[in-house]
Amino acid sequence: MTxxxxxxxxxxxxxxxxxxxxxxxxxIGLNQLWYKDYEKSNFRFINDNExxxxxDKLGHxxxxxxxGRLGAEALQWSGASKKEQLIYGSTIGLGFLTVVEVFDxxxxxxxxxxxxxxANVSGTALYVSQELLWNEQRIxxxxxxxxxxLPSLRPNTLGETALEQVxxxxxxxxxxxxxxxxxxxxxEFVPKWLNLAVGHGGSGMLFGTKxxxxxxxxxxxxxxxxxxxxxxxxxxxxxxxxFLKTVFSVFNTLKVPxxxxxxxxxxxxxxxxxFF
Length: 276
What we know:
Layout (H helix, E strand, L loop, with lengths): L8 H27 L9 E2 L8 H22 L5 H24 L6 E2 H21 L4 E7 L9 H4 L3 H7 L4 E8 H5 L8 E10 L6 H6 L7 E10 L9 H10 L6 E7 L4 E7 L1
Helix pairs in contact: 1-3, 2-3, 2-4, 3-4
């Protein structure tokens, strides 16, 4: 877990092999969870930018950011230069999600999406631009999930098992941008690990759009949810253990449960003492 002071070719090769194996296995698992129940089709593009209150697009931003970040940090262990880390991280993030987009393109249920591609590029750009501008990550996309009762009404789309629901049930997903307060303000009394997070979620969605729901005999009352909450940047917690630094880096992809204020598009305001 301790980064090499200079380029270590054996470590660099190990990173390439390990990440290829992990991402390959992930693609196989994703195919089993997401695509296996649907017929294949000729490759096609679709316009799905109005579906699911754009929750799927936020998922693409989040995924491309963290795939790039974790890929770059893994290569750092080998002693590779900063330039190599950024190139490798951005390539592995965009490459993996491009393959996913090809899967979509050949699925009769979905199709390749220009909106997804833009979101993938945006997530990668968010990581790379911060490294180039500040040499640190001051803004971190994060994820949280809570179980809803909607998958039971449409399990084939929203998921049957708990794992499928985390991936498919957009009603339970929340995506956040977590801002490190100290990095922006440089105030000495502010803990370096303390973040302020703004989030977005959606609810009431059985189908991608109200029109799709209506064509299937269902009136869909979907609405957006906006959140303001405190968070923790785990990578800013001081430790001399490189193992703990690695653990903190991996789990920094998730929003820490904390007091939260919610405003939804129905103009309802709610306060939570503990929200994930």
